[in-house]
Amino acid sequence: MWIVRLALRRPYTFVVMSMVIVILGVLAILRMPTDIFPDIDIPVVSVIWSYGGISPEEMAEVVTIRCERSFTGTVNDIQHIESQSLPGLSVIKLFFYPNAKIEAAVAQLAASSQSVLHSLPTGFTPPSILRYNASSVPILQLSISSDTLSEQALYDYGYNFIRTQMSNVQGVSLPLPYGGRPRQIMVDIDPHALYAQGISASDVVNAINAQSLILPSGNAKIGVNDFVVRLNSAPDAAEAFNNLPIKQTNGTTVYVRDVAHVRDGYAIQTNIVRHNGNRAALLTVLKNGGASTLDIVAKIKEILPRIRSTLPTALKLKLLFDQSIFVRAAIQGVLREAGMAALLTALMILLFLGSWRSTIIVCISIPLSILTSLAVLNLLHETINVMTLGGLALAVGILVDDATVEIENIHRNLGQGKPIIKAILDGAQQIALPAFVSTLCICIVFVPVIFLTGAARYLFTPLALAVVLAMMASYLLSRTLIPTMVKYLLRSEVGRYLNESGEMEEAGHGWFAAIHHGFQTRFETIRNGYRRMLASALAHRKLVAGCFALITVACGALIPFIGEDFFPRVDAGQIRLHVRAPAGTRIEETEGYFRQIEDTIRQVIPPPELSDILDDIGLPYSGYKVAFSDSGIIGRFDGEILVSLKPEHASTWGYISGLRRRLTHEFPELTFFFQPADIVGQILNFGLPAPIDVQVVGPLGQRSGQLRARPADPAAANAHTGRGGRAPAPGGRRTGVALPGGSHACPATRAHATGRRQQPAHLAQLERAVRAELLDQSAKWRGLSDRHPDAGIQYGFHRRAAEHAGARGKRTVGHAVADQPGAARARPHRIGRQPLRCATALRCVCQRRGS
Q1: pLDDT tier for residue 692 given thresholds of 50, 70 and 90
Q2: pLDDT-derived band of residue 696, with 50, 70 and 90 as boundaries?
Q3: Which residues are registered as beta bridge partners of 255?
Q4: 26/3 Cα distance (integer angstroms)
Q5: Angle in degrees, CA 516, 522, 526, rounded to 5
Q6: What is the pairing mode between strands 44-50 and 89-96?
């Protein structure tokens, strides 16, 4: 009561407080980042190794296993590790516990990687260590194409000119361009000329490296001048490399041009991008975790005209797959529904109270409560997203309770003939405790949110905060601002309340009163009918209880048919189709498959509804893009097709079903599966290609391919593995090494159930079926580790002189080994130029590399 008395004595204080709330709330709206979801800050760090030309199996054995075993002993707070070994790439993702110190973990990873680097073959460079976030997803694609420029020029413009100018946008990450051909100085060697000159390719490499150096030369002071000395130690043009000498034989100098041709060319193409049937390059814009999608896209669109002015007119830039459109539509939809709820609430208050002044008082408390919640959320570094706005929209109908109950009670006290101040004080006192308990009951419903873990914690905590903060603000305003406004706005309505019921006079008080009287008359009729129905129900208790039980059982029987899912499906007007050709297919042949699939897509989707078709074929040129991509591409025989539909289109899911049936019939040799194309699915899958991810962990990499994912439920449209056949060495996936007993995850497969659902969202049922199938298959694998001890672990062997070697005269080590009873013969390991077999008599010291 003291706060109500204070509000009545000092009304301007709380009026100013309301103005401050408005200012802080508006500033929060303008400054808070806007996105589809809150920032899902699950600590993940990616370590990316690159070594061109090496197979996935060798990459896993030489790099991945060593790094994983080293990280488990030197890096703190690791929850589990996932890794992916591809041709020339190794991407290791380390998942940490929620309270881990990521900065310290990154420093430990850098130090551990340096120690591993010394045991790797010559030519390895230190890895890239990047922090990963589930919100780091593509929000915009920039297509770079031309009718006259070559693919080499497209890549060069995208890498050196467009990407550098876009990188100054705050909150944006720009990987290297997809597609195109990276520029390189190529040395085309003639093997027959090498044989004729009696030299090797290594001689050519050494000669070029030795004569293309950038060396410090210093300066020379001659007279009054100080000259900068520049050495002629590196050719200025690619053609000048042809004149470099390699060696002299019999007084004849052999030059590079005699055995090779040096040209300004491009690297071997491993990645092709096609936009609407034509070759192109692609820049992907990624969003950092705490940035605003709408702000990033708006700034990029703002600087794009300036970037175009610095490029040739033959170069075409086009923005594709703009996720800000979807984000803006989702947020506007929530705001529209919240506004409609507020409007309907105000209408109901007007009809029941019959006072437009009371309606204004209640309606003012709603936006003030919401603005207070947004201001506090801004201080807590939250964002404006679908979850927070959904919580506020949910609270709109609840926020009016405190103000409505208090005003209605004040009206009742006014009808008893009390003065305005007395009516306000008595009305506030009478409902103070019930209103407080009601507010606490609503707030306590959201307390279990703090016990959530994983992505659900980051999604639903902002929603709960938004509701609780708005409810607390609503109760505070009902104790302060509402009594102040009642004191000044309802003074003229005191004479309208003449009896104890608080009903106003039937006539003489305007058309609002007439509308209220007509509504009350009809409402009384409905209430009388309800009273009669309730009396009848009480007279037939058994019949009512039986009907209630029957309805409850019928509703419970529908539960298995409803299905379960983490988030509802979204029709964003985009299709993402993954296509995998037979393992070992050349990238040029894979492009031919994609060309035929594009023709099929154009036949299924009508041209008026089709906007763009974008192909991404093969592995990208940088491991950075693999670390932040959920495409699941594992080789040059693999790729994905992005299809964008126009705003006026039919159901996307219908087109997906039609494409699945037709493509599997026309291309039986290919593998197809659909991945999430919208920002919602990509964030919730947390970097995985599908909502269900089966990870096979075991000691036998060579046997992991025996598992083939089979749809264990009709809801699984198509299951696929992250690893193809054995020919010739496609990329594989490996998972986690943080396992008990020193075991490790071998190059394994991943089966993903994706795409169509015949029943709505049967992910839980599908997961149970897949789990049962895997348990049945895993029972057949027990004991394999005993029969096949080689699990891909590498050991280092060091020579040590045998204690009794030569004790029996001129006997060799081989004879000493042969004399040992039960001597074990192991696989030969070569040290230097001599093969060495591990046997008991040699007492070889074995240690795990990288640990």
Answers
A1: low
A2: low
A3: 245
A4: 27
A5: 135
A6: antiparallel
Specify the 3-state DSSP secondary structure of 206. Answer: helix
What DSSP line would sit under 60-121, residue for residue?
Answer: IIIIIHHHHHHHHHHSSSEEEEEEEEETTEEEEEEEE-TT--HHHHHHHHHHHHHHHHTTSP
Output b/e per residue, 259-279; b: 16+ Cβ within 10 A: bbebeeebeebbbbbbbeeeb
The CA distance from 446 to 467, in Å, is 8
Separation of CA 846 from chain center: 42
Tokens representing residue 656 in the block: 């997906």
Query: Which pLDDT score, from 0 to 100, does residue 797 have?
Result: 42
Joined together, the tokens standing for residue 530 give 């309800």
Distance of CA 35 to the CA centre of its chain: 13
At 554, is the pLDDT very low, low, confident or very high (cuts 50, 70, 90)? very high
**pTM assigned to the model:** 0.72
Q: What is residue 427's predicted lDDT score, i.e. its pLDDT? A: 82
Name the residue with tokens 């927070």: 388
- Through-space distance between the first and last CA atoms of the chain, rounded to whole angstroms: 69
pLDDT one-digit tens code per residue, 176-195: 888 888 888 889 999 899 88
What's residue 396's pLDDT?
79
Query: Is the pLDDT confidence value at 600 over 90?
Result: yes
Cα-Cα-Cα-Cα dihedral sign, residues 422, 423, 424, 427 = positive
Distance CA 588, CA 574 (A): 26
Structure tokens given for 163: 């990407």
pLDDT, one tens digit per residue, over 654-666 is 899 899 999 989 9
Contact between 117 and 124 under an 8 Å Cβ cutoff? The reply is yes
| Contact (CB, 8 A) for 751 and 733 | no
- With tokens 């050495």, the residue in question is 231
Classify burial at 337, counting beta carbons within 10 Å of its beta carbon; exposed 0-12, middle 13-18, buried 19 or more: middle
Instruction: Return the sign of the alpha-carbon dihedral for residues 794, 796, 801, 802.
Output: negative
Q: Rounded CA gap, 409 and 423, in Å?
A: 8
Is the alpha carbon torsion for 707, 631, 82, 69 positive or negative? positive
Distance CA 276, CA 644 (A): 11
| Residue listed under structure tokens 């897949």 | 770
What does the angle CA 159 – CA 298 – CA 180 come to, to the nearest 5 degrees? 20
Report which secondary-structure segment, H or E, holds 294: helix 293-309
Tokens encoding 244: 């470099």
HEC sequence for 419-475: CHHHHHHHHHHHCHHHHHHHHHHHHHCCHHHHHCCCHHHHHHHHHHHHHHHHHHHHH
pLDDT digits (tens, 9 = 90+) for 766-789: 555 555 555 555 444 444 334 344
Can you state the percent helix, strand and coil of the chain, rounding each to 5?
50, 20, 30
Q: Which residue has the higher pLDDT, 356 or 829?
A: 356
